[in-house]
Specification:
By secondary structure, the chain is an alpha/beta fold. The protein is built from nine helices and nine strands. The protein has helices at about 20-30, 60-70, 85-100, 120-130, 145-150, 160-170, 215-230, 235-250, 265-270; strands spanning about 5-15, 35-45, 50-55, 80, 105, 140, 175-180, 190-195, 200-205. A hairpin with a 5-residue loop joins strand 2 and strand 3. Bound molecules: adenosine-5'-diphosphate and pyridoxal-5'-phosphate. The site of adenosine-5'-diphosphate has 21 residues, from strand 8, helix 7 and helix 8. InterPro entries: HMP/HMP-P_kinase_dom, PM/HMP-P_kinase-1, Ribokinase-like.
Length: about 270
């Protein structure tokens, strides 16, 4: 029997299956790891209201109970966070990471859903910045989230992304990936990786149609899977970029509103 490699996601449920805890667990499986989970929020999307997202946070005490269950086996090989939903849940997450001496922590500072343009909960965004960034092996903000965390506001160039990455690194995150994704203008999907010394640019041609619902969650889960399997941070980010690109290429139109990634796309292309 090979050694079981353990991964954990602390994230919300996306019933449409592309993002959230569903994306994370599917991606962990693709990496050959055993996925644990603690559910933080339930998100629904309403076809009668133009696919408007409703977000229902779970009681933080129940999140804490789930984490007690997960960590009863000791720390996992790598973990990630996604949508956390309330300041209390951010605190519970911080406490679990500290108490269990958990290493290889990927923080995906989810603040918005694609297609929605308001920060879900500004206080949670601040708590992620203050409490979780100092614990992050890697943090993976999208363009909007990087603007909020860095305090720079709207980012629109690669130079802006680099400056945001530098400022977010100063907040305590060991490595920062600012995702330009669909939000950055131009033909390329550009991500900037900063390790406190050097910048690396990861880029691919933008894939059209952009079936990228869940791309951010899948990218962070893939980095987590890579770290759990023993890759260095640079290697894990490089492989995650290939993994998420394949997931977008193999995504599909679910309905008129949304096109999720297919998490098994990378395997299909090998
Ligand atoms: N249309 C696209 N073509 C290729 N890569 C994309 C596309 N959209 C997003 N990506 C990539 O998917 C990953 C997730 O980015 P993004 O979608 O911006 O994150 P989020 O889901 O957090 O908003 C990044 O590596 C980004 O560059
Ligand atoms: C539970 C949950 N987490 C995270 C996200 C963010 O998804 P994405 O990876 O597309 O940024 C969503 C978006 O709908 C969601 O429902």
């Amino acid at each position: 029997m090979p050694k079981i490699i353990k991964t954990l996601t602390i994230a919300g449920s996306d019933s449409s299956g592309g993002a959230g805890i569903q994306a994370d667990l599917k991606t962990f499986e693709e990496y050959g790891t055993y996925g644990f989970s603690a559910l933080t929020t339930i998100v629904t999307m309403d076809p009668d209201q133009g696919w408007h997202h409703n977000v229902y946070p779970i009681d933080a005490a129940i999140v804490a109970e789930q984490l007690k269950t997960v960590f009863a086996g000791g720390p996992v090989d790598a973990m990630k966070t996604g949508m956390l939903g309330s300041v209390e849940i951010v605190r519970v997450t911080e406490q679990a990471i500290r108490e269990n001496l958990q290493a290889n922590v990927v923080i995906d500072p989810v603040m918005v859903c694609k297609g929605e343009d308001e920060v879900l909960n500004p206080e949670s965004a601040q708590a992620i910045r203050d409490l979780l960034l100092p614990l992050a092996t890697v943090v993976t903000p999208n363009l909007f989230e990087a603007g909020v965390l860095s305090g720079l506001g709207k980012l629109s160039t690669v130079e802006d992304m680099k400056e945001a990455a530098r400022l977010i690194h100063q907040l305590g995150a060991h490595n920062v990936v600012v995702k330009g994704g669909k939000a950055l203008g131009g033909d390329m999907a550009i991500d900037i990786f900063y390790n406190g010394t050097d910048y690396t640019v990861f880029q691919t041609a933008k894939i059209e149609p952009a079936h990228n619902h869940g791309a951010g969650c899948t990218f962070a889960a893939a980095i987590t899977g890579g770290l759990a399997c023993g890759l260095s941070v640079d290697e894990a980010v490089a492989k995650a970029k290939d993994f998420v690109s394949a997931a977008i290429r193999n995504g599909f139109a679910f309905n008129e509103y949304v096109g999720p990634v297919f998490h098994g796309g990378y395997r299909l292309e090998q």
